[in-house]
Specification:
Layout lengths: L1 H26 L42 E6 L5 H4 L1 H6 L1 H9 L2 E7 L6 H10 L6 H5 L11 H7 L4 E6 L1 H5 L6 E5 L9 H7 L2 H6 L5 E6 L1 H9 L6 H22 L8 E5 L15 H4 E7 L14 E4 L2 H9 L14 H4 L4 H22 L7 H21 L5 H29 L4 H13 L1
Parallel strand pairs: 1-5, 1-6, 2-8, 3-4, 3-5
Antiparallel strand pairs: 2-7, 6-7
Helix pairs in contact: 1-19, 5-14, 16-17, 16-18, 17-18
């Protein structure tokens, strides 16, 4: 009798485990994925072929970098209103001046939940959308094996230095030529955790042996957890960050020569913070962060100040890849931010957008059997054909108004195609398998 009851109980447990497994399978959607990382540096697509015989394009390589060096300053839990609101005007005067009158493109970057650090770093560097399973993995971040900007940069021979939150060191082991990681778990410390990053600045900014410098400051996030976003501790911390940005920016400008490429400073947050100082959810205060591109390559602002445009946090990976002359990560669902490249020639802009569209359409093909019916794919093919017509006119030496107007038309077509492709891929990540969830729930409740 005991044996039978034991076997029955074990059987019930197995069936319940099956039910839980089915529910979890439906609740955690399959991520959008393309080729493994080792296969991600294939030959880039050529420009779309011009119609008719006798005219061919010879641009088949990845475009050259737009910037010589890039510095990424990630301020943990930096809300958009800490830069663009009254706090920014009062406590970040140098940054505010750059935003309002300087050579800066400013945006509000929308992060997708979960708004915790590790998934957000993944989104920034891969352009993909991590899921809620990453909340668990946030406690012990394993090495990131999918295609990403850091791996592409290292593979291309770029020298990367990192100081700050040691989550980066865990995600990208052996990628940095120099690093100093700080732990994020001592939330009562909001001073030394940032001083340990800043103490390297004076020496590293004088050196020429790096191409990318990444700084991840944790102090503001720790203040939020301790006393909230309206704490009197926030004000001196923002002022401290502003002085650091001033030091980096002036150093980058002083190193530029007329004959060399300009440098780029990026300021961003991984997530914001709620009115209680926490994060992880989907409130506007948690998902909206500032994203600043600062470079002498951009024209100074003039005219009335406009509200910063809303972009996706995943757009950074594609934009920075093009800026550094790297392939766009294969799993990225992001779009190139046009403002960053609009100072280049029309041919270069169309080339950048075509590379982005080609990458997104390939990702769609790998993840959607009926990809040819997707409106984004159809729009991309139309834009690609128009692009071929533009190249034909360009290579024939046509410099008329027709070439300019056609270029603007193709640009608009590409931007529309990229927007729809990105939306289609992003929706797929959030597609729950309701059937598996319902069957799993019934099994658990009935057994």
């Amino acid at each position: 009798m005991r044996l039978r009851s034991g076997v029955f109980a074990a059987g019930c447990l197995l069936v319940q485990a099956l039910g839980v497994g089915l529910f979890l399978r439906g609740f955690f959607p399959v991520p959008v994925r393309s080729l493994p990382r080792r296969e991600a540096r294939g030959v880039p697509p050529a420009e779309p072929p011009p119609p008719g015989p006798g005219v061919t394009s010879n641009w088949t390589k990845i475009p050259s970098p737009l910037f010589k060096k890039a510095v990424i300053v990630l301020i943990d839990a930096l809300r958009d209103d800490f830069v663009f609101g009254s706090k920014g005007k009062q406590f970040m005067p140098y940054t505010t001046q750059l935003v309002e009158k300087g050579t800066c493109h400013s945006f509000i970057a929308e992060a997708k939940p979960p708004t915790v650090t590790m998934p957000r770093i993944k989104a920034l560097m891969t352009g993909s959308i991590p899921g809620f399973i990453d909340i668990i993995m946030n406690l012990n971040s394993p090495a990131l094996l999918e295609d990403n900007l850091i791996w592409q940069a290292k593979t291309a021979g770029k020298r990367i230095i990192f100081y700050g939150d040691d989550t980066w060191v865990k995600l990208f082991p052996k990628h940095f030529v120099e690093y100093d990681g700080t732990t994020s778990f001592f939330v009562s410390d909001y001073t030394e955790v940032d001083d340990n990053v800043t103490r390297h600045l004076d020496s590293v900014l004088k050196r020429e042996d790096w191409d990318i410098l990444i700084l991840h400051y944790l102090g503001l996030d720790h203040i939020g957890h301790l006393t909230g976003p309206n704490s009197p501790l926030v004000e001196p911390k923002l002022y401290e960050m502003d002085n650091i940005l001033k030091k980096i920016h002036t150093s980058l400008l002083s190193k530029e020569e007329e004959s060399s490429l300009p440098n780029l400073l990026i300021v961003c947050g991984d997530h914001g913070m709620s009115e209680t100082g926490s994060h992880g959810g989907s409130s506007e205060e948690e998902v909206h962060t500032p994203l600043l591109f600062i470079s002498s390559a951009f024209e100074k602002r003039n005219g009335p100040l406009k509200q910063p445009e809303l972009v996706q946090q995943t757009d950074l990976a594609a934009t920075l890849a093009i800026g550094l002359g790297l392939p766009i990560s294969r799993n990225s669902v992001g779009n190139i931010i046009l403002s960053v490249i609009e100072g280049k020639t029309m041919r270069e802009q169309l080339r950048f957008l075509h590379l982005n569209g080609f990458q997104l359409s390939r990702l769609l093909q790998d993840n959607m059997p009926t990809y040819e019916k997707d409106p984004g794919f159809e729009h991309f093919k139309i834009a690609e054909k128009s692009h071929g017509n533009w190249i034909k006119l360009y290579l024939e030496g046509n410099n008329s108004e027709v070439l300019l107007n056609l270029g603007k038309k193709v640009l608009k077509q590409y931007l529309e195609a990229l927007k729809i492709l990105s939306s289609s891929l992003s929706k797929q990540v959030a597609q729950y398998d309701m059937y598996s969830m319902m069957v799993g729930t019934v099994i658990v409740l009935e057994v």
